[in-house]
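Notes for week 9. Today we move from apo structures to complexes. The key idea is that a small molecule is not decoration. When we ask for a structure prediction with zinc ion present, the ligand SMILES becomes part of the input, just like the chain. The input block below holds both the sequence and the ligand string. Read it once before you look at the output, and try to guess where the molecule might sit.
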Amino acid sequence: MLGRGVLSRLHTLTQQETFTLTLYLDIDQNKQANRKRGFVVQAEALLKDLRATHGPDRRLAEANRRALALVKKLRPNGKSALVVVNTAAKLAELIEIGLPFAASAHWRKGAFLRPVVEAVDEHENYGVVLTSTQRARLFIAHMGEITEHEDLISDTTARSKALGTDQWRSQGRRERRHEEEVALHAKRVIDALHELALRQPFDRLIVAGTKKATAQLVRLLPRRLQGKLVRTLTMPVTASKKEVLQGILKLQQRMEREQETLLIEGLEAELHDGGKAVAGFAPVLDAINQGRVWKLLYDKKLKIKGGECGDCGSYTPETKGPCPYCGGKVKAAAQTLDRLSQTVFEMAGQVEVVDGPAANRLVKHGSIAALLRY
Ligand SMILES: [Zn+2]
């Protein structure tokens, strides 16, 4: 499972003078092209391109060899694979990911982790409880994968059985007993959740299941878990893992869209003279050059090409000509958006790629904007 821990380790291990090879592969076995080891062919082609771009380099050749060996050994389960190799750091790892990533290869200082960092940010760890008044199943969902951890059953009695004429007196007692048992079950579920949180920490909690059981559980949640609760979903306790995952993914998408809309509202509130935001390609580049960007936002569909000064490293909206800062020679920056994001990340800033209604709203601001630190 890919989490922040793995990413920060890869990041730290590759912060060296020597270059790191980063490879993203599409290994989805639902795609015809990837079957019969098609992903090995894909890796070979990407690495060949990389060699052509960088010319003869002993270290790159060695890194490529190590990466290919890992890819050839792979029995794919996930949708994509991330390979990171830095021979000087004795690092050669392949990590499968349950989400699609565009195939690409990078040879540079520091592993190229931006795509996967963005994805991890969008996909937090979710603890999921699926409960009825008798049974509860606990899951952890992360980046398009779900794992079932626990299936507990309490012997809660039925609320009311068919009543005989002389049984009406005991009905109240039976109801009370049932309520007590439902509460007891909820407490057991909360204990199990605490244990799960120790083994496998989660950022957010989703309570799913029958109406009565979810309501009872939510009422009894301790404050710390209450704070993680994002929403409740009505779902039968017998739902398949796939159905649970689909329910969560739908919920996540809705929440992401809501957050993005809030972000754009925050941006618009600061887009005035002296405000802490800028919009449009040239002003955003200027802010990045000055190291003022706290959060870069752009439309997922945005395609732009900018330049980079060979002398001072500044970005420019033009892809050639003299640098407006130092007069040096500007050359086109390949993969401009990737370069910009990388620079923002290096300044400990964030990058938000927006989609849907928020992206439509960003169009009138040039589809790219930035929130500033000062
Ligand atoms: Zn310059």
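Residues 309, 311-312, 314, 323, 325-326, 328 surround zinc ion (CB under 6 Å).
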